[in-house]
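TL;DR need C-alpha cells for one chain.
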Amino acid sequence: MVKRREFLKWLAALFTVIFSGCIDKRDTTNKNQEIVKEGEPMKRAMNSEVYVIKTNDRGLGIKELVKRLDVGSFSGKKVALKANYNSADSFPASTHIDTVFALIRALKEKRASVVLAERSGMGNTREVLEEMGVMELAGKEGFDVVILDENSEWVLEKQEHWKRGFLFPKVFRDADAIIQTCCLKTHRYGGHFTMSLKNSVGMVAKYHPDDGYNYMSELHSSRYQRLMIAEINTAYEPAFVIMDGIAGFSKGGPDTGTLIEPGIMLASRDRVALDAAGIAVLRIYGTTNEVSAGSIFGQEQIARAAELNLGASSPDEIEVVAVNEEASGICAAIEGELQKK
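>> reply
TL;DR here they are.
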C-alpha cells in the first residue's frame, strides 16, 4: 500500500509536469490508432490525410509527397520497401522503375539503409526483378534486394479466415520501418481491386517450406478472399504508402486491363484511407460493376480492414489534401465519391 506522504509527493510531481507543459497530447495519440476513455466508445484521434499531387514527374511527385508526410529522419534505420512486382508486365501492372528510383533517393536523403523485398505471383521473382530493371538499379544505387521465395525466414501469423494462418517474412518484421508503393488498378481474379491492401499479398509465402502447403491457392479459391487480403495487413504497419496513379487499370488487372491516365500520385500513412481514395478515382473514370457497387466503405477489403482498426473506418475520417493547385479538381471529385452511399 502506498503511504499518504509518498502519494502526496507523487501527486505534486504530476501537477508540476502538467503545469510546466511537459505533457503533450501528441504523445498519447496517433492518427491511425484509437484512444479509449472509460465509459466512452472508441474514437479516432484525428482524420487521416491522403495527399494528392497532379504530375507525370515521379521524382517531383515523390519528393513533394514525402515532404508532406513529414516522416523525419531514418538515420541508422533499416527500411524495408515493398513495391508491386507481381509480374514482369509494364506499368501500371508493375511499379515503374522511376518510382523505385525516386523512393530510394528520397529514403537515402533521410539516411536510411534500404532493402527491397518481393515475391511475384505471376512469374519467377528473380527473373521478374531482373526484367523490370530492379536488380540493375540496386547495383547502381546500393540497396539490397531480398527474393522472398529463396530461403527466407518466416513468422506464422494467425487470422480468422486463414485455415492455417499465413507466413510473414522476418525481413519485414525485423525492419525499423516499412514503406510500400502500389499501383492503381482493378483485379479480375477475385480481389476486385489491387492497391495497398492487396499489394501486401506479395509479402506472404506462397508455399510452406516444410510441407509445401499452398497459401495462395487457399487465398484465391476462398469465398473470403477479400477479407483474407485485409487480414494480411494486421502483420505490419507501414510508415507510409505511395500510390502511383499516373496511369491505372479501371477494368481487368492486375497484369493487363483498360488503361486510364489520371496523372496523379497519392500518399498516406493510412493504407485504408489511401485505398478508399484509389477506389474513388476508379469510379470517377468508370470501372467494374464490383468496384462500383455500394459505398466505398462497403467494399469487403475496406470494410474488413476498418473492422480490424487498420485505418479510417468511414469517409468522414479522411481528409483529401491537394499538394498543388492542379490537383484541386480531382481531390474534390474524390471527396464526392467517398461520400456517396
